[in-house]
Amino acid sequence: MIIAQQKPIKDIAAMIEDCKKVLLVGCAGCVTVCLSGGEKETEVLASSLRIMRRLQGNPLETVTITATRQCDPEYIEPLENLVKDVDAIISLACGVGVQYLAERFHDKWVVPAQNTMFVGGSRTHGVWEERCGLCGDCILHRTGGICPIIRCSKSILNGPCGGSQYGKCEISKDVDCAWQLIYDRMKALGKLDKLMEIQPPKDWSKSRDGGPRKAIREDVMIG
Amino acid sequence: MKTESKLQKLLDSGHFAVTAEIGPPKHASAHGIRHHAQMLKDYVDATNITDCQTAIVRLSSIASAVHILDCGLEPIVQMTCRDRNRIAIQSDLLGAYSLGVRNLLCLSGDHQKFGNEPSAKNVYDIDSIQLIYLMRRMRDEKLFFSGEPIKEHEPRFFIGAVANPFADPFEFRVARLEKKVEAGAEFIQTQCIFDMERFERFMEMVRERGIHERVHILAGVTPLKSWRAAKYLQTSVSGMIVPDDIVERLKKADDPKREGIEICIEQIKHIRTIPGVHGVHIMAIAWEEVVPEIVERSGLYPRPKVE
């Protein structure tokens, strides 16, 4: 899922300081699961902003709603009636949701309440970790199911570099060396010889470096 | 002979090589680089020039190399994968060759987190092993990284790489060294050795695989100025092992700097007895002026002349 973390409330408040009435839109997708932008967080943020503004002597009116998903036009279409009489929209979705709202409601000021961080999973309650670098050309079959693109701080394909010690990355004792993990797993699977193959340079054009990407499935297109 | 590198000639003819390291300054004057080059030129066969080591912005490695060449010393240009994509790397290395650089050391590079631009974007378009392979191919098969032919004047570098016997997983370190040799590395400089026992074990594994017959290994040493410097390397630099007895020896010394030089000379004398080691790489970090004494007292002076 996409992991996002709410911006500090003073930063969110600053984005709407000129507004009298705002719509806060939560998302029932990934950000609900990672507890940062679901229905509950949307209500909490709305009341926090109202309290803050009341204390400043500049009351704020809020409207809240949580869309099934903000990354699908059909789920943001029903917001039209709510959008009409607000000065701005605060999206609690990931960056995709913010952009979908801005595209749909092009005459409205749309601001992000979240920092979209990464694609990952939960480790334990309250802890999420990055797992996929969205490189567009998966190599997990060559690295024992551990992604060096995103989990190695240098995205090295022929690791580990000389900064790996006691299983940790040179950047921090809190970061596992991805190549130590890859080595351990390949060893356990009896596939260490695979690590002797020189992995060729990666085709980054399939990643962000090729420009914004699009996926097309003609077989499911309508019309 | 594949290249015009004097270092290669020397190593290939069986001499025990001596290289040093010059760290470029954090300003735009080459005065210090030239001073160090003049001082070192009769005592070492070539000198590395670091490429913004520990990710600190410094005068460029290739520009420094030109000053060093001008002083009559052979440079080894360090090229990290941290700051340049494959377009910039190739362009810079074509330029370096055109300026007379003949030795290249390929590294991943320290993460930018350690430097004075921790919010910079890192590149790592290719990694060090890919860089070795692609530069070897550029020389021997006359191909750009993309596979497009170089019609004429391909750069013909003597290609080096680094190895760190003190990083983990230890048992994979020799295998990774072999991978670098497979990719095309012709000389290897190791991380600073303080744990001689571990280095000996490493070399034993190197000899078991016959790697020492395929590549010239130069053992890295660093003279330490104080016990605090030793402690810092021991506790704060990942991929480094400094045994406690070295820290203690420096702590007890009346003149720690002298003691640091003595330790370094002892290490070099010991390293010369290890089969398969073809040279020594002296990294006197911000202390270049002690290199001549270390070389001389280790019995490595005068340096052999090559045509």
Please summarize what this structure is:
Chain A contains eight helices and nine strands.
Tell me how many strands of chain A there are: 9
The secondary-structure element order of chain A is: EHEHHEHHEHEEEHEEH
Biggest β-sheet description of chain A: 4 strands, parallel
Total of helices of chain A: 8
The helical percent of chain A reads 25-40%
CATH class of chain B: Alpha Beta
The N- to C-terminal Cα distance of chain A equals 31 Å
Describe this structure in words.
The complex is a heterodimer of chains A (223) and B (307). Chain A is an alpha/beta fold and 223 residues long. Chain A folds into two domains: 2-118, 3-Layer(aba) Sandwich (Rossmann fold), CATH 3.40.50; 134-210, no CATH class. Chain A contains eight helices and nine strands. Chain A has helices at 9-15, 30-33, 39-55, 73-76, 80-83, 95-104, 148-151, 178-188, and strands at residues 2-6, 21-27, 61-67, 88-91, 109-112, 114-124, 127-132, 168-169, 172-176. Chain A is elongated and about 65 Å long. The mean pLDDT of chain A is 97. Chain B has 307 residues and is an alpha/beta fold. In chain B, 40% of the residues lie in helices and 15% in strands. Chain B has eleven helices and eight strands. Chain B has helices at 6-12, 31-40, 61-70, 86-98, 128-140, 170-183, 196-208, 227-236, 244-252, 256-271, 291-297; strands spanning 17-22, 46-49, 75-80, 103-107, 158-163, 187-192, 216-221, 277-282. In chain B, strands 1-2-3-4-5-6-7-8 form an eight-stranded parallel beta barrel, surrounded by six helices. In chain B, strand 5 (158-163), helix 6 and strand 6 (187-192) form a beta-alpha-beta unit. Chain A binds chain B through residues 153-171, 177, 180, 183-184, 192, 195-196, 198-202, 204, and chain B through 81-82, 86, 108-111, 113-114, 122, 124-130, 133-134, 145, 162-164, 166-169, 172, 175-176, 178-179, 182-183, 191, 238-240. Chain B: One of its GO terms (molecular function) is methylenetetrahydrofolate reductase (NADH) activity. Chain B: Pathway: One-carbon metabolism; tetrahydrofolate interconversion. Chain B: Its cofactor is FAD. Chain B: It catalyses: (6S)-5-methyl-5,6,7,8-tetrahydrofolate + NAD(+) = (6R)-5,10-methylene-5,6,7,8-tetrahydrofolate + NADH + H(+).
